[in-house]
Each structure stands twice: as structure tokens, then as C-alpha cells.
Design a protein that fits this description.
single chain; alpha/beta; Dihydrofolate Reductase, subunit A; 8-stranded mixed sheet; 5 helices; about 25% strand; globular
Amino acid sequence: MKLVLTEFVTLDGVSQGPGSPDEDTSDGFTRGGWLVPHLDELFVRRTSEWLDLADGLLLGRRTYEAFARDWPQITDDPYTERMNALPKYVVTNTLTSGDWHPTTVLTGDPIETVAALKEQPGRELQIHGSARLGQALLSAGLVDTVRLAVAPTIAGSGRRLLDHPGAATGLRLVNHESTPSGLLLLEYDCIGIAPAAAYEGVAAFVN
């Protein structure tokens, strides 16, 4: 399966608390709910199409527990049936089982367990939320595609998605569009170590 990191971020890269002011107040974060004012029909249609490509969801423990609590109670949402029916894989060394069926608990080293999971047949294994897990897997070179919905907001504080200690990651833009409300929908393929070069004037770039 291809590993796809699907995230909502602000223009300054914050991924914390997109859905409501009290969604995630860890570390004193008080600026949640930044995505909701910009939701529109195109965003819903495109993110639904992204979810159609999933053969499984890969989640960290905190996101898994929040999703397992909330999604079974949601009845009027176009994503509900698929979110509840898709296989869930939760990376954790503190849970032994999950009651949001079907759930598989992945224990041990997450890099090794996710690498093994990727070898299974299927289309996309999608990370939703779970920013810390996404950072670790991106840093380890296991993420194949990054899909972002970028809100026209500068949060100024909060947990950022793309901080990771590994080598700089190169990306190739493969799809992009903007929605009427101003969201940028971006899709990148990960291409390994990011290239670097020294600027020596414009002659190399123009005919």
C-alpha cells in the first residue's frame, strides 16, 4: 500500500485543533477551530474523493481514541460510513485492543511495523490527524504522498505538522487547486532527500 499523509494546516503549518476551539488544547493551545470558517462544497467533495482511495486508516493513539469516540456517533456526515467501515491500524504501545471495529493494534517500533504494513496489497493507507506519527514516518522516508488543505490563516502558535528531525524531504507538486473559500488543496509526491543548489543568476533558468 502507498502511505499518504492527509492533513489540514494553517498557512504557518499548524495542524493542531482545526475542527473547534476545544478540539485540542494541549500545551495551552487556544486558537483551534481555524479550518471551519473556510469549509465549502469543493473542499467536501475533494476530501471525500481522497477518502475513497483509502484501503485503511493509520492513526496514533490519541487520534484513534478521539475518532473512536466521535465517528460512531456522527450520522449526518458524508464521510461517516467509510470512516467507520475502513480497517483502522493504531500505532501504540499502550493499547492492547480497540473497540472501533475493525481495528488492528500495531505495537513495537512504529517504523518497522508500518514498513511491514505497507508491504500488504492495497491502494492507500491514509494518516488522518496523528501529526506526531506523520512527522516520524515522513522523517523515516515511509510517506509516499502528502495531501494538504491549507487554510488562509496564520495561527501564530500551536503544534506544527512538518517539524521533523530527519533530512530535508523533497516534494514534487502533482495536484493543486483553490476552493471558493480560499483553501488551497495541495498534493505532493515525496521524492527523497530535498535537492539543494547555489544561486548563480537567472541565465540557467531562462532561454
